[in-house]
Amino acid sequence: MGVGPLARLAPMTFLPFAAPLTTLQQRKAIESFEPGGGFVLDAGPNRTKWLMKELKKAMLRSPSFAALMFEIQKDTTHPIHLKLVSKDPEVYVDGYYSHMNPGSQELDIDDLSHIPSDAPKESPNAITRGEVLVHALAEARAGSLTKTSGADYGEAHDAGIDAQNAYRDALGQKGHRQKGDKDGGFNAVGNFEMVYDNGHLETWVKGEGPASISDVNRMELGPPGKPYDATAAADDLRQAIEGVQRR
Ligand SMILES: [Zn+2]
Which domain holds residue 234? Predict the structure, then answer.
């Protein structure tokens, strides 16, 4: 784990309070969490309501994510600006560095609505809406913190990946999103494809509009009991999609 927000959160505390909280107190603190302080939300009332419901659900599931949100709210010297858009032709799920201002993040709620809130029964390792939110918010936080040090998108994106993997752990899901050239990307037909380190493959099928999602396909590629080579599998898949013969 790198130097992202999670590394700093290692001794887990709920920041608004000095004393350790009971489970019930934690629950109440999360349920009454609202935008404000270092958490600036730019959205109308309906979108705000939708997002807060999703955020609280994710915070209740993951102590590390709840701690991150309280940390963001408390740190008014490094505010994050989250803007909710819908069917934005330039925002694919989330957009870092919006308006060239690190710490500003856009979220496309139409894209998010195609990612399930809960993993489907037949696909327990599925990427959920909470995981995507966690990534976006940890990335925005990293952008806001590194504003003056000139850190680039890659570092903030990696902090987002660390946070989403911690979120998966909290949910008891198998597989972690990988970094660098093992991270996902757009395939030849314009679908976004990701292979997690346990062989969980997700394809976010391109929608009709630009930068949109219509559907999600999932496959488990990892043969049980065998070490899984994610790079080789991703290459195989890419070649299969492109119709290239394997040599
Ligand atoms: Zn990212």
Answer: 176-247
